[in-house]
Specification:
The structure holds two protein chains of two kinds. Helix content of chain A is 32%, strand content 26%. Chain B contains six helices and five strands, in the order ββαβββααααα. In chain B, a hairpin with a 2-residue loop joins β3 and β4. Chain B has a five-stranded mixed β-sheet with strand order 2-1-5-3-4, with helices on both faces. Chain B is globular and about 45 Å long. By secondary structure, chain B is an alpha+beta fold. Classes of the chains: A alpha+beta, B alpha+beta. The interface between A and B is medium-sized, with 30 and 35 residues. The complex binds flavin-adenine dinucleotide and FE2/S2 (inorganic) cluster (2 copies).
């Protein structure tokens, strides 16, 4: 018989997490699929469950002049519906799942699940976001792109809970986001691309590019971007991004299709806008 | 354990566990079988209910999320005037065949009306993107939804 824990405070949750080997349960939209059993039966989880969805400490969105802080249990529809958040952040969340799933699925769940096709990761990588991880011993922060190690793999410790995501504010003036799946909505992406630009008086002063679904985790490379800011050479940028691609054939679409399409989208956008 | 919540306007207490699905509780403990189980994984929308006025897939909601909250199932919504408008439109357009998907479809239409102010083709389709119908081919359902929007909004 598994135990379920439903603490009222984050402090209590961290104590439970420290004492017991348990599965953190946020929205459950990934966990329920993985644990599918038979109709009508209570879901059988093999581990004790620690519910965190109810923790008010993890449910806030805070926007200041320096940064945006998203609580781990903020839902996708809360981001979609928050007019204080920039469109380049809201759009990827709005295009995920379907309306009912977005009312349940959380920011933290998409990150910690770390699917190859997780749609929040490219934008969170591109924005240089950091994850905040807490345990009873304290808190540590690290870039989301380092926290995600690969397909379904992150650097979370068994006594930690991801509590927040911090996004530094920058002066992005334009962005491009494209998600391609074989149905319009409600499909795990085959491909997603985000490009953010900062221009001052027509000069490109900053740029961030991330490509999802091609490698085990999204591609993001600061050095390649810096090189492009200095040279302005689009073809060289595209060649360098291509060298970063290590995708494998899978049942969703062929490697070549994803690699070529994602690079073509980036090239077209930069040719028109950089 | 006992979990208190509000079900279709009435305070109730379920004898269940935190990890039991809301779907199983409304169907088995309260006998409200209008909420259906199709795919069990968030894709088909047959199990849609409102939880604190937000549309959710009850096949993916553990009772832990329901503690002290308001649940509205198709049986509760069916008592409203708006339900009558939607039911009438579905009937007039012949949008119902086997009927299995229809309670969920109706909940999604109601969610569309509650959450949107503009009703383009794209918005309607996005709002219904979590509902699957294996019989009708959707066109009759869309026609019915357009009629509902005309009557309710315009
Ligand atoms: C119909 C359907 C459509 C979907 N469409 C998309 C889509 O378009 N794009 C997409 O990217 N995903 C999609 N998903 C997958 C899923 O909805 C998302 O990954 C979602 O963000 C997961 O969040 P959750 O809160 O439900 O996670 P959960 O299922 O609660 O958790 C997922 C994993 O993360 C861990 N975890 C969660 N929160 C924390 C935390 N704060 N600290 C530590 N560990 C934690 C859990 O232990 C678990 O291992 C879809 C799922 C369904 C069912
Ligand atoms: S049974 Fe819940 S979405 Fe299909
Ligand atoms: S009418 Fe049969 S599934 Fe929709």
């Amino acid at each position: 018989m598994i135990q379920s824990y439903r603490p009222e405070t984050l402090k209590e949750a961290l104590q439970i997490r420290n004492q017991i080997d348990c599965t953190v349960f946020a929205g459950g939209t990934d966990l329920y699929i993985r644990k599918r059993q038979w109709q009508g039966a209570e879901r059988r989880f093999d581990n004790d469950l620690l519910f965190i969805h109810q923790l008010s400490e993890l449910r806030k969105i805070e926007v200041s002049d320096e940064e945006i802080i998203l609580g781990a249990c903020v839902t996708q529809s809360e981001i979609e519906g928050d007019a204080y958040l920039p469109e380049f952040l809201r759009m990827p969340y709005r295009l995920m799942g379907n309306p009912a799933i977005r009312n349940t699925a959380t920011v933290g769940g998409n990150i910690v699940n770390a699917a190859q096709v997780a749609d929040s990761l490219p934008v969170l990588f591109a924005l240089d976001s950091q994850v905040v991880l807490q345990s009873i011993h304290g808190e540590r922060k690290m870039p989301t792109m380092d926290f995600v190690i690969g397909k379904y793999k992150t650097g979370i410790q068994t006594n930690e809970i991801l509590t927040h995501v911090m996004i530094p504010k920058k002066n992005w003036t334009d962005f491009y986001y494209r998600k391609i799946g074989s149905r319009k909505q409600n499909i795990l992406s085959k491909l997603s691309v985000i490009v953010l630009l900062e221009k001052k008086n027509d000069d490109l002063t900053n740029l961030a590019i991330s490509i999802g679904c091609v490698n085990e985790k999204p591609i993001r490379d600061h050095e390649i971007e810096q090189g492009f800011l200095e040279s302005g050479a689009i073809n060289q940028l595209i060649d360098q991004l291509y060298d970063k691609m290590e995708g494998q054939n899978d049942k969703r679409s062929s490697k070549a299709y994803r690699e070529i399409t994602s690079l073509k989208l980036i090239k077209d956008y930069l040719e028109k806008n950089s | 354990m006992k979990i208190p919540f509000q079900l279709n306007g009435e305070p109730v207490v379920a004898e269940t566990t935190y990890s039991m699905r809301l779907l199983d509780v409304v169907r088995n403990e309260f006998g409200l079988t209008g909420t259906k189980e199709g795919c069990s994984e968030g894709e088909c929308g047959a199990c849609l209910v409102f939880l604190d006025n937000k549309l959710v897939n009850s096949c993916m909601v553990p009772m832990s999320h329901v503690v002290g909250k308001k649940v509205e199932t198709i049986e509760g919504f069916a008592k409203s005037e708006r339900y009558q408008v939607i039911e009438q439109a579905f009937q007039n357009h012949g949008a119902v065949q086997c009927g299995f998907c229809i309670p969920g479809m109706i909940m999604a239409v109601e969610n569309l009306l509650r959450t949107q102010t503009v009703f383009t083709e794209e918005i309607i389709k996005e709002s219904m993107s979590g509902n699957i119908c294996r019989c009708t081919g959707y066109q009759l359902i869309y026609d019915a939804i357009k009629t509902v929007i005309q009557e309710v909004v315009e």
